[in-house]
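Q: I'm writing a short explainer about MADS-box domain-containing protein for a general audience and would like to include a description of its predicted shape. Could you first generate the structure from this sequence?
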Amino acid sequence: MTGKGVCWTTRNLDEGKRKKILEERLASLCKKAYELSILCDVKVSIISFTPGETDNFTWPSVTEANEIVTNYLACPEKQRQYKLVEHEAYLQSIVNDREKEIRELEKMAEEKEMENLFNQLAEGRKRFDEFDVCDIKGLLNLINDKRAKLDQMEMQLSGSIANEIGANDNNAEEENDRHPN
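A: Of course. Here's the predicted structure. Afterward I'll give you a sentence or two in plain language.
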């Protein structure tokens, strides 16, 4: 959560205030990077470039940051790409996941709507000639899906009945073998 009075943009502030805000935020970022390095046992460095200035900000030190970057660049390309996620690719994956969720919800809503139309048709509240082409296609898909489910249930039921009959026949044969007439 952000605190009260957090300034989201520094475009309208004078240069002194902007530098002060940057220093405060970099200090906070360094603290979090230090905590991350301790908690996750990883090497972390921060390098910040400010437009228009020749100096850059480096944490924990220039030599340590240089060592961390050098070690990272020394890794094989395949391993580096595995570890590195570009922000755009990350956001695209989130968008793709959300689009998939939306498609699933739309499909579920369409199925519910078709079931509602089917019930209205079955109860006589609507006539078949009142439906448009899209509704009829949806109803046909619903009927095909229900028919497939019924066929599947029939196969399972006939299989379980056959297993029971086979088990009963085996039990009867065993009893006949034990008790000869």
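A: For your explainer, you could say: The first strand starts at residue 46 and ends at 49.
Q: Perfect, that's easy to follow.
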